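Service request form, structural biology core

Requester: graduate student, group of Dr. S.
Request type: structure prediction, single chain
Budget code: on file
Notes: please return the result as structure tokens.

Sequence provided:
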Amino acid sequence: MEIDALVFDILGTLVDEPAGIRMAVQEAAPDADIDELARLWQGHVETEQRRIVAGERPYAPSDVLDREAAEVATKTDVVPKLSPWPDSVEGLAKLAEHHTLIGLSNASRTSLLRINAHAGLRWHQALSAEDARTYKPDPAVYELAVDLAKTKPERLLMVATHAWDLRGAQSAGLRTAYVARPVGDPPSETDRFDFHADGLADLAVQLAKLRL
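Core staff response, request fulfilled:
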């Protein structure tokens, strides 16, 4: 297996999105049921993204959907700050020693700037689904990475903690690596991904074996 670049999901895979949303909700509504309002927030965003992919709603970038969700959940326009997982910054730096790193996120360009600035993530290039005017798992989003890398899809490795995201990448011809996180969408018994890793350090070890 020859890999030209690693393509990383960001929300959930590299930053703790649910915790960031809970903190934003707590800031806006400290006396409310934080977990329930956070679920309401995330449910709104996921539902609207699915509607956009299905063609039931015109495209709207993720920062617009987040503002809608904040209004639904807290009646405010609070913006979440998403912090990296403990291994994200160091793990990306380690992987960048031998691989081109591409971020590929459903987050809008505006949201990506804010996320990367707060979390200190390192990329060679970060791509937003906004450029395709749809959302993962629409194949058009994964094709953004293929077009950027100027290579065959099977020479790109999609890294995510969401099995649905990896299935979408597979449908576009990419290789896949599941990275376990406390949040996300674990693989089912029928999923067949190329790598399963406990974290970014474990993924780096597995990828190093390809160079031997």
